[in-house]
Write a sequence for this structure.
């Protein structure tokens, strides 16, 4: 993954904070519409950028749909990846999954979907914690180029980018909000 | 990622950041051990061999459970059951294990250097589970993990290691690891078991228990290893206990917030009195729990494919998520 230095060296802002906010508001609107009549919902962000995005989604959900109680989780899929025998062992972040997933709708949150392999790993990981009523997927960007039959339920934007470009989600240095950079590998 | 090796042979060849990589990964695996389903698929399809050419219960069981929790297949080979009895050399045994597609070999051996020797000719990853009086890296790592979990950053912490230092691979490995993380190490015990030469490893050596315990943040007691002593290094266990055993009276010399550790198995009434070993300040059983997490971390890290050291052109990520 590109680091902050790489962003400073070779990147351009792809979406400014107000545009990102608008995308997130749209996603939350759809999430609320789908969950009409449900009292709870579990948001599970994938480490690390998915957690960042999930936190913003949670705040917005609490604003527009206070009647839904939101359980929050963070998931590192490192132990479930399908490339462990090919690549060096990944560095891992904590996994904290809400208790009692039974009969709760889970929404997995990640910044970008491309191959679909991360989400495959996330599905296996979540099912080791319980049997949710359903699992859905929310992503800010869908880059296409899927290698597995996995599709998001809530999408901020579909984009078509050259394969050497990376989408990088960053929190604003001042104030709240997220902005999006493009960087070359 | 700072872990770069296919093997874990000793502590002295690890960098500080490699040690921290193991400890950080171990905290993730400790979480896994607290879930209702305590198993993850990280080593699915891999074969791990426990090659124990010296008796051991807790280390062997800990590695066995660690491998199972990672979904690896594990085979246990002990001195009694193996063809060492029939005169087969270590090299031949390992060649045969390779032919059975062993991916990771965990070795415990009475001779120092056995794990290094193995790593020079086998295709498998080698993990040293104790070689003579030389090294016991996973014990040191689990001790470091426990200390860091309880006391935070180890730089500047005062650690006293008490007892049989001379014959102890645990002591040597602990000293290396603690020094690399910046802790101050004091060694204490009978002069026959704590030679002054250990000062060259950057430790303070003292024969005065009171002085050794006075300002310690952590007290690590070691087992008296009867089996490694060819001749008697002190008159009797009773006398050892009288001069160096941790009892109620000596507990008053230790700071109230100091940790009491012991790698096990405990000789109750020799190194430590029973009620202290079972007391509130003792973390002996937590060390065992942490040992499982640390061994999962080590298995996970050595199993990682394409170690940068060996293959400079490690595969780049080709997709994003």
């Amino acid at each position: 993954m590109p680091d902050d230095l790489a962003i400073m060296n070779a990147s351009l802002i792809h979406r400014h904070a107000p545009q990102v906010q608008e995308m997130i508001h749209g996603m939350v609107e759809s999430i609320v519409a789908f969950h009409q009549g449900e009292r709870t919902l579990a948001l599970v962000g994938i480490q690390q950028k998915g957690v960042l995005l999930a936190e913003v989604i949670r705040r917005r959900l609490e604003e527009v749909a206070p009647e839904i109680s939101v359980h929050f989780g963070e998931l590192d899929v490192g132990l479930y990846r399908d490339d462990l025998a090919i690549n060096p062992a990944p560095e891992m972040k904590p996994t904290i999954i809400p208790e009692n997933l039974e009969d709760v709708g889970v929404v997995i949150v990640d910044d970008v979907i491309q191959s679909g392999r991360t989400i495959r790993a996330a599905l296996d990981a979540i099912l080791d914690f319980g049997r949710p009523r359903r699992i859905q997927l929310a992503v800010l960007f869908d880059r296409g180029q899927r290698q597995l039959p996995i599709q998001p339920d809530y999408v901020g934007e579909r984009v078509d980018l050259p394969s050497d470009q990376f989408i990088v989600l960053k929190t604003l240095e001042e104030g709240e909000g997220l902005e999006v950079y493009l960087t070359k590998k | 990622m700072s872990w770069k090796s296919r093997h874990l042979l000793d502590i002295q060849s690890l960098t500080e950041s490699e040690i921290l990589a193991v400890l950080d990964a171990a905290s993730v695996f400790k979480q896994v051990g607290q879930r209702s389903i305590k198993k993850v698929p990280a080593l699915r399809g891999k074969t791990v061999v426990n090659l124990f050419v010296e008796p051991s219960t807790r280390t062997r069981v800990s590695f066995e459970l660690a491998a199972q929790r990672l979904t690896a297949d594990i085979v246990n080979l002990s001195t009694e059951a193996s063809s060492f009895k029939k005169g087969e050399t270590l090299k031949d045994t390992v060649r045969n294990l390779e032919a059975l597609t062993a991916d990771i070999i965990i070795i415990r051996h009475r001779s120092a250097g056995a794990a290094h020797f193995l790593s020079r000719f086998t295709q498998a990853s080698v993990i040293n589970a104790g070689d003579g009086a030389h090294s016991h890296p996973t014990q040191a790592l689990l001790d470091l993990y426990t200390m860091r979990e309880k006391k935070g950053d180890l730089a500047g912490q005062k650690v006293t290691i008490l007892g049989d230092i001379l014959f102890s691979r645990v002591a040597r490995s602990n000293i290396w690891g603690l020094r690399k993380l910046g802790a101050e190490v004091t060694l204490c015990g009978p002069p026959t078991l704590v030679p002054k030469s250990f000062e060259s490893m950057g430790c303070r050596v003292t024969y005065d228990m009171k002085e050794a315990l006075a300002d310690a943040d952590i007290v690590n007691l070691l087992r008296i290893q009867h089996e490694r002593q060819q001749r008697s290094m002190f008159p009797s266990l009773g006398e050892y206990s009288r001069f160096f055993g941790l009892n109620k009276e000596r507990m008053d010399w230790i700071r109230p917030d100091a940790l009491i550790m012991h790698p096990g198995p405990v000789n109750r009434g020799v190194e430590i009195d029973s009620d202290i070993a079972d007391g509130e300040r003792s973390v002996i059983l937590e060390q065992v729990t942490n040992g499982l997490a640390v061994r999962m971390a080590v298995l996970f890290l050595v199993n990682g494919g394409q170690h940068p050291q060996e293959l400079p052109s490690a595969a780049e990520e080709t997709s994003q998520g």
Observations:
- Residues 19-165 of chain A form a domain with the Rossmann fold fold (CATH 3.40.50.2020).
- Chain A has one domain: 19-165.
- Chain A touches chain B through 39 residues (CB under 8 Å).
